[in-house]
Amino acid sequence: MFDESKCDLCGDCLTLCPYVDYERDEAIEQFQSLIEGGTPRIVSECITCVACNQFCEKGAGPFDLILERQERTGVLNIPEQNTQLFRNFPNAPSRVIPGDADGPALSLCSVGELLPGLFDGPLFKGMTVLKGGDYFCGVGWVHLGQEAPLRENAPGVIANLAASNANEIVFYHDDCYALMASIAPDYGIEVPFQPVHIIEYLLRRAKEQAAVKPLGIKVAYQQPCASRYTPWKDAQLDELFSLIGVERVDRDYDRASALCCGSPLMPRDRKRAMEVKERNISDAVAAGAQGMAYLCPLCVLNLRKVAESSGLENYHLIELVDRALYE
Ligand code: SF4
Ligand code: SF4
Fold first, then answer.
1. 81-196 against 202-326: fold identical
2. Is residue 47 in contact with ligand 2, taking CB distance under 6 Å?
3. Is the pLDDT assigned to residue 210 strictly greater than 90?
4. Which fold has domain 202-326?
5. Whether residue 253 has pLDDT greater than 90
6. For the whole prediction, is pTM greater than 0.70?
7. Of 2, 44, 50, 147, which is best to mutate to test ligand 2, by the most ligand atoms within 8 angstroms of its C-beta?
8. I need a surface site. Which of 57, 111, 132, 211 has the fewest CB within 10 A?
9. Best of 2, 13, 69 to mutate for ligand 1, by most ligand atoms within 8 A of CB?
10. Pick the CATH number of 81-196 from 1.10.3470, 3.40.50, 1.10.10, 2.60.40
């Protein structure tokens, strides 16, 4: 939630936004208007990447204010079919695959089937798996300019996960981890299990493994937007890449300066989405990457063709760890 008491109207949030080009005076003017209840053009120009919450060093949460205004005005004009898709996610069939009751469970949200075969290897053998509509986190609603459905859905999904009786739950979807580790606590909702991010889980497994085959490849990392809610994982990712012998190339659009994969823009403005994708992939190529390394399956689906056509391989982080540990 936006905290006006922390905002000193410095304008950093909007001058650093990688999708608009505002001088500082204009950024300050727009943010002042937002605080006063207006709807300046940033509200419709914003692509909902959440980055400005991270840019704001005072912790005011500027994106939360932009989101509130998007929701109140409906200015993003999201097509009804996209909104309906999100409304239907919680109704999708759910499944619990029972596994080791003493170990961590694995939650796949509603996105576990998007990249077939990703969980078939030894990394996840014997785990209890939770997947489908009952475990849909709803964080993606922010990309439709809506926060209320996320807030309404949160207690139910946390209760469904808690019903697994697992002490630890590993979250494949970055959005789910953002809900458990950052958003739910902000809402004052108790999370009665330990959320573990998939990067943290993979890092544990890599550290346990006696022999790791260094992969010797250079990748450009595609950070999901939801990572803005839980940026502390980035140090774990660096450690993981180092353990499996993968070089994360130093590029313009990584870490705090990462670009969105473009998927939130697709329903609203495909041309602008393609510009963002091409900017991102060109940057990866210029930095000497051999491939893109992804965490979010939606980033894979949105960027893989553009990456391929630029001569880059596409790797999911799980595939890389699988290869380094077990091939
Ligand atoms: S929200 Fe943060 S970054 Fe934006 S103007 Fe206020 S203090 Fe500055
Ligand atoms: S959420 Fe992203 S696109 Fe929107 S204003 Fe903030 S940095 Fe810019």
1. yes
2. yes
3. no
4. Rossmann fold (3.40.50)
5. yes
6. yes
7. 50
8. 211
9. 13
10. 3.40.50
